[in-house]
Amino acid sequence: VQSQAIPVMIVQLHPVELTLPADALVDAVNQATVAAQVSGRVVEVHVDAGQAVRKGDLLMKIDAREASEVAAGASAQYVNARAHYQRTLSLRQQGFVSQAAVDKAKADLDAAQAAHGQAAVGVGHATVRAPLTGIVAQRLTEMGEMATPGKPLLVMHDPQGLRVTASIPQYRVPQMHAVRQARIEFPELGKVVDATSVTVLPTADAATHVSPVRVGLPPGFADIVPGMHARVHFVVGRANKMTVPQTAIVRRGEVAAVYVQNAQEALSLRQLRLGEPVGTGEVEVLAGLRAGERVVLDPVKAAVALKSAIPPGK
């Protein structure tokens, strides 16, 4: 019976990047929480989560009857306050009232004018429009629900302006100031991208003793959204090391090993002493291998071949 050739790699010392990994979260440079500014029932909903909108697009409508009633009341109060002030001013000129009465009437007029202006603006805010061009990340209000001033209606972000914020221990911060290169890994998506920038923020969390480091994310990734988990690998140096892929390693309890193929294509399982992960998907070999040896990249296929006693590649 013929077996397929088993893929191998020849291990050598080679220059690798020394990285400092850190957990991180994706966030948006431009993000807006759109909140209601009037009270009323939501009577129209034109968008849902994930939908793209342009600045000024209609998002929702709130029943403005209550706001209109408030505006009408404020308008009447303003008219009355203005008439009362003019009457008080006339009485003062005739000596029938004190200057304090005039001052109070003026203060009441100013307050009524401010309330009138605010109520008029509130009627306009019954129509909710997009404050920026972007994606609706969350819709927090359904049709028919009551909106109140300050209640969040939806969250938007600009997908072209995403970044990743990592948390670095404070003792590492001086080292981070020299870092110019980093890779961003998205474990759930199986993606790794190069960062466009690395910026250490001059702040620290008093409770956790970590500092935030912002890492620029290139545009064009539709499946990366704010709040997504990421892992940033900051490049802190370079050195010559011997490495093997993580996928080539066989782990049995605390023991790590790889299948090695000799010049006669015979296979054997070799125990290794491993160091830290290096780069993306590689791990440093501290002992157990010599430069020039051939390591099997597919340990499952090697185990089957060895068990079958079929010479690999034959």
Précis, in short:
The protein is built from four helices and 22 strands. It has 314 residues and is α+β, with helices and mostly antiparallel strands.
What does this structure look like?
It is a single chain. With 314 residues, the chain is α+β, with helices and mostly antiparallel strands. The chain has helices spanning 65-93, 99-124, 173-176, 299-308; strands at 8-10, 14-28, 31-35, 40-45, 52-53, 58-62, 127-129, 134-139, 146-147, 152-157, 162-169, 182-186, 191-194, 198-200, 210-216, 229-241, 243-245, 250-252, 255-261, 267-278, 282-287, 294-296. The strands form four sheets. Strands 1, 17, 18, 19, 20, 21 and 22 form a seven-stranded antiparallel sheet that branches. It has a seven-stranded antiparallel sheet with strand order 13-12-16-2-11-15-14. A hairpin with a 5-residue loop joins strand 19 (255-261) and strand 20 (267-278). It is elongated, with a radius of gyration of 34 Å.
